[in-house]
Design brief:
Length: 339
């Protein structure tokens, strides 16, 4: 089967690249062809899975005539779109073009850009992948019924040869700040404030920030493996890849006690959930969940207990093996290709 992929910024160290890569690798390993039309992106790198063929649009929008020409050349039976038309508008709908040609369409959409005025557009997809039950419920509330819940995860072999980074003998908390995000999404300032409340000579806080240095995924995984606890205080998530990665490496995660974060992390099982204030935002379309600093400090304090931390680490790996195993969960995605 020939599968088309339309994706933003592939070959960059961003979450949407890793979502595309996971699906790309899945179809290739299942014996299909995977042809990609990407919007911008980084230099091709062997750190990523390569598609069967690659075409790049240097602008934000793939012109209609170029998209049609690509379809004529590739002849895909299914086209997978990652975050299509979520960040900018187009004067045509590529889902209409695919439907006119009898091409199935599968969409992956981020939570913060699900806007009401595009509900009719979302309904045009053959299927929409919802990586959490929470997102699927959001679609149903909008009377959009083509969303299919697919439990997310990652391949086990990704974590077999992760570098052994040394942080020292202290209990190390790692906060992956990314590039900060819109509306201070990662809540880095609150992480620092909470840590200061419980800081002593037994603990340390490390922070990675992409604006200071573009970190590869291998580097992030190395830091994650070396940490004792990940603090992922993001105000919203579509999945929360850092949470999955941490648990796969046996590292528990502290998250806001709000969906979908608390769907991936069960309190006192594979991490801790922290009370937060949920409110609307003028910047994003999803609820914003702002952790309480004092409650976050309490969660950090709990993890300073050796017995509790040992239990959380053991549970994190066990939980990941059960729920975040893409070698098992990929069957749900592969089924979408033929239904």
């Amino acid at each position: 089967m020939k599968i088309g992929f339309v994706s933003n910024l592939y070959y960059t160290y961003k979450g949407h690249s890793y979502v595309t890569e996971l699906l790309l690798k899945t179809v290739l390993e299942d014996g299909h062809e995977a042809h990609m039309y990407r919007i911008r992106g980084g230099r091709t790198s062997d750190e990523f899975v390569h598609p069967t063929s690659l075409r790049t649009c240097k602008d934000l929008i793939i012109p209609k005539k170029d998209f049609v020409a690509w379809l004529d050349e590739v002849q895909p039976e299914v086209c997978v779109f990652n975050e299509y038309a979520q960040w900018w508008d187009e004067d045509h709908d590529k889902l209409d073009i695919c439907r006119e040609r009898g091409i199935k369409t599968i969409g992956y959409l981020v939570q913060e850009r699900l806007v009401e005025d595009k509900n009719e557009h979302y309904k045009k997809y053959t299927h929409i992948i919802s990586p959490t039950k929470y997102q699927q419920k959001m679609f149903i509330k909008k009377s959009i019924y083509n969303s299919i819940y697919i439990p997310w995860g990652d391949y086990n072999d990704v974590y077999e040869n992760v570098a052994n980074v040394k942080f020292g003998d202290k209990i190390t908390f790692l906060h992956i700040a990314g590039s900060g995000g819109a509306d201070n999404r990662k809540n880095t300032e609150k992480v620092i404030e909470a840590f200061k409340q419980v800081q002593d000579d037994t603990v340390d806080l490390k922070i990675t920030h992409l604006q200071s240095k573009p970190l590869t995924r291998k580097e992030i995984l190395g830091f994650t493996k070396a940490a004792d606890v990940i603090i992922n205080t993001s105000k919203w998530e579509t999945i929360g890849l850092n949470t999955i990665e941490a648990n796969k490496l046996g590292v528990p995660v502290i998250v806001a006690d709000a969906p979908p974060m608390n769907e991936l992390v069960q309190n006192r099982v594979n991490g801790l959930t922290v009370e937060c204030e949920t409110k609307k935002s003028d910047i994003v379309s999803c609820p914003v969940n702002d952790v309480e600093v004092d409650e976050l400090a309490k969660a950090i304090q709990i993890c300073k207990n050796d017995v509790v931390l040992t239990m959380l680490k053991k549970n994190a790996k066990t939980y990941a093996d059960k729920y975040f195993d893409w070698d098992k969960n990929k069957a749900f995605f592969l089924e979408l290709l033929v239904t």
